[in-house]
């Protein structure tokens, strides 16, 4: 796949766009999508673009922010069932048409696939605005973990139709791009992810924190970071920990995050340290103070936590899937098991926990790999791709754009 790259000189000559970015999640909500979008928004503004962020109101006291090249438009929303802390936006086509008629954006970018996102695409098409989208979450895969597996095909069909109404769908990995194209998605482009290597760093390893965990210098801390939910495959984390502890008794399991499975994890593994949600330098210290990062999820579109662990100098064990498939090389800069091969995943966890020399070598190589994953380069690519879509739309007669949208609808 050809990757677009833009030189500093080219970026300086690029036009500055007014971008309407629509999302149903944004900080202070804590999840990979929200954190990635905040990074992208900050990067776009830093490159001279103006951003209008459209998102659901997160609390009654929530007010729209406006500063310089950034402004917010808040919509109505409801809590997402069984997903505390997240909301979905209600349809808002009429409000968006009014707002964008008064102050027309150059391009609309829709980051999430809920009712707000769907109506944002409809509003953009009504006003003949170019519109792009992100594929951040495998919602069709989630259905199997919440007892509604029969919804997978209808959800898959909805997602495909949603994204095929846009000029380009951005995905984080080449593997996902291939999978979506095979399912009939049109105009898919890879925009990867980066990691903040100044925040997530081995230098944040904290002996005092390890002492709070009940560990001495040579003891092993296994860490899992993420939402405590069925789709994260946490039972495999617990099975891997049990196997590691049998081979290496001086081991502790540290779990960072919260969610509906918290009580089940506490019941099934009472010795696990449940640290709850952590952010910023506190989160970075938790990563760096561990020795082995376990990530067995098979529902991610990317998995930012993999890059954060690698940047923190923690040996990573994951499936050959999503972010790990892109950046982890088995026995080189981490440990990667074939997807769904649970014995292989557990075997790698035990091997790394019991071989300190191997673990430290893989951790150092993981850090070196993370240092090459620069956010600035990722955002340059994203900004350049938005400009390309805008230029293409500006050069195509409106009738041709409408005909292409009609073709994709079918």
From TrEMBL:
Keywords carried by this UniProt record: Glycosyltransferase, Transferase
Broad class of enzyme this protein falls into: transferase
Entry superkingdom: Bacteria
Record-listed E.C. numbers: 2.4.-.-
GO terms assigned for molecular function: glycosyltransferase activity
InterPro entries: Glyco_trans_4-like_N, Glycosyltransferase_grp1
A Pfam family: Glyco_trans_1_4
Glycosyltransferase subfamily 4-like N-terminal domain span: 30-198
SUPFAM superfamilies: UDP-Glycosyltransferase/glycogen phosphorylase (SSF53756)
PANTHER family with a match to the protein in the record: SULFOQUINOVOSYL TRANSFERASE SQD2 (PTHR45947:SF3)
Record-given protein name: Glycosyltransferase family 4 protein
